[in-house]
Automatic annotation (TrEMBL):
PROSITE patterns xrefs: PROKAR_LIPOPROTEIN
Membrane-traversing stretches: 42-67, 88-113, 133-153
Domain of life: Bacteria
Keywords, alphabetical: Membrane, Signal, Transmembrane, Transmembrane helix
Protein name: Lipoprotein
Signal peptide location: 1-29
């Protein structure tokens, strides 16, 4: 059995589980394509998708790539000296992840946060949109706080390991 798995890995270039996951992803994508193309308004779906891809690649990606490079450069500039050892734990991902979560939540709930369609929402749900901005800010603060706690724990663990006696 091990010989067969090794043969598959040598032929395919990755583990058999990767091949299985890739096949499942293609099956799901094929199902989604069939469902989309069977809808009567499928050309509009394809136009919207193409617009989303172009909008992301031409507008949004350069913006968040610039923000990411600026973050990395600012964190490097905060280090006391270039000759100093690199930080024990990089802070970049502890800022990236909650920022990404906050950005995705803002994108998802932006119409509610700016209270667009106030009357329609009130008529449909019987609720107002006043809480969305506050809730988004609280969730964003919680994500950054959790990330800061995890960063502090990782930094403490790395310092402890660095100063622990070697066996």
């Amino acid at each position: 059995m091990r010989h067969k798995l090794t043969a598959i890995k040598n032929f395919y270039g990755a583990a058999p589980l990767h091949l299985l996951a890739l096949a499942a992803c293609f099956a799901l994508a094929g199902y989604a394509a069939v469902q989309t193309l069977s809808a009567p308004h499928w050309p509009w779906i394809l136009i919207w998708f193409a617009g989303a891809v172009l909008g992301h690649d031409l507008a949004v990606f350069p913006l968040y790539a610039l923000a990411d490079r600026s973050l990395a450069r600012a964190l490097r500039a905060l280090r006391p000296s270039r000759a100093a050892t690199p930080p024990l734990v990089s802070a970049v991902n502890h800022i990236r992840l909650p920022a990404l979560g906050a950005g995705l939540l803002l994108l998802l709930f932006f119409p509610m946060i700016i209270q667009q369609g106030r009357q329609t929402y009130l008529a449909a749900s019987g609720r107002t949109q006043h809480d969305y901005l506050g809730h988004w800010l609280l969730v964003t603060a919680a994500m950054f706080a959790l990330s800061a706690i995890i960063y502090a724990l990782r930094l403490g663990h790395a310092q402890h390991r660095r100063h622990a006696p070697r066996k």
